[in-house]
Amino acid sequence: MKFGTKLIHNGNEIDKNTGALSIPIYHASTYHQEGGVGKYGKYDYSRSGNPTREALESTITTLEGGDNGYAFSSGMAATSSVLSIFSSGDHIILCQDVYGGTYRIAKEFFNKFDIEISFVDVSDLSNIRNSIKENTKGLFLETPSNPLLRITDLRGAIKIAKEHDLITIIDNTFMSPYLQRPIELGIDIVIHSATKFIGGHSDVIGGLVVVKGQELSKRVRFVQNGFGAILGPQDSWLLMRGLKTLKIRLDYQQNNAIKLAEWLQSHKNVESVFYPGLESHPGSKLHLSQADGPGAVLSFTALNDEIALNFMNNVKVAALAVSLGGVETIVSHPSTMSHAAIPKIEREKLGIQDKLIRVSVGLEDIEDLLEDFNRVLV
Ligand code: PLP
């Protein structure tokens, strides 16, 4: 079955009890135990299991090609729960340009539990090799990275990780399972901020994790149930609804993004455009060897801070907002929004300048976007 069909036919398209073409929202915290004491049914308490959440979890598992899926109350809850499978004394390698929130919890939260984290420039694989120590247990990647769309060689990184028995984790938010399925390449754990392309409508915060392997699944499941950062049934339903149109949305948004990137590249007030759909992007070939498309997020630097500010403050056919992946075009300012948690000096080392603008391209007619961008890029 091809991906578009799987979005619709994945075992959760029909409610088995009623035939409804939409899984019911089970707003239940607890369940009567018909069998009596000691003979408990499949569901006992919704932190441990809820039929609506379970339908979403099994859908994302099918789409990513993993063994088990887990839904969390946010992308950060998903990331924090995954990082919680490690123990004190463990060392984890994180790619240096991870999402700012991931950087923050790694630097300011997990270090309290004696989990050692190294931020590494994984665009050069030898840096991964050189960072591995006796206590290294995990490798956490994000490709394309946020906000500069840098590309990591997934096959190469996974090969090194396997040689050293590291658990490989990837934040696949920018691509979604439609465009990149890292488990097929050998990744152990995939994380999504489902708030983004999976939800797709800027109306829900959620996180998803898909795991390959039963032993590793048990460790994530233990944290999900024990720590309890689960996704509620209403939001689970919203994500399932969003998923049904993932392919058609992304196809259209990606097409718009390609046109916008090409247009920006030739604009006199634009310094550089970062988008793996452009041939000029140094990671373009590598990206297209491990993903099915460049996606719908790009970033660019304006010629100077003043032009960047004028653009962000006056653009009309796009929202100025945190987040990405919705039906509407969203313009954001990484240095004061998604990556504000990273100290300025570190940000600048990473190339996240104040004149850098990230664009999540939406479903508008491209002519309207280009006209509006042209008006304010002055
Ligand atoms: N990962 C990436 C790549 C993100 O862009 C974000 C949010 O912007 C997150 C994780 C965190 O997700 P959430 O905001 O759903 O907690």
UniProtKB/TrEMBL annotation:
Cofactor(s) needed for function: pyridoxal 5'-phosphate
Positions where N6-(pyridoxal phosphate)lysine occurs in the chain: 196
GO cellular component: cytoplasm
Keyword list, A-Z: Amino-acid biosynthesis, Lyase, Methionine biosynthesis, Pyridoxal phosphate, Transferase
InterPro entries: Cys/Met-Metab_PyrdxlP-dep_enz, Cys_met_metab_PP, PyrdxlP-dep_Trfase, PyrdxlP-dep_Trfase_major, PyrdxlP-dep_Trfase_small
Domain of life: Bacteria
Pfam families: Cys_Met_Meta_PP (PF01053)
PROSITE patterns (alphabetical): CYS_MET_METAB_PP
Signal peptide range: none
Family, per entry: Belongs to the trans-sulfuration enzymes family.
Protein name from the UniProt record: cysteine-S-conjugate beta-lyase
Source organism of the structure: Alkalibaculum sporogenes
Native organism taxonomy: Bacteria, Bacillati, Bacillota, Clostridia, Eubacteriales
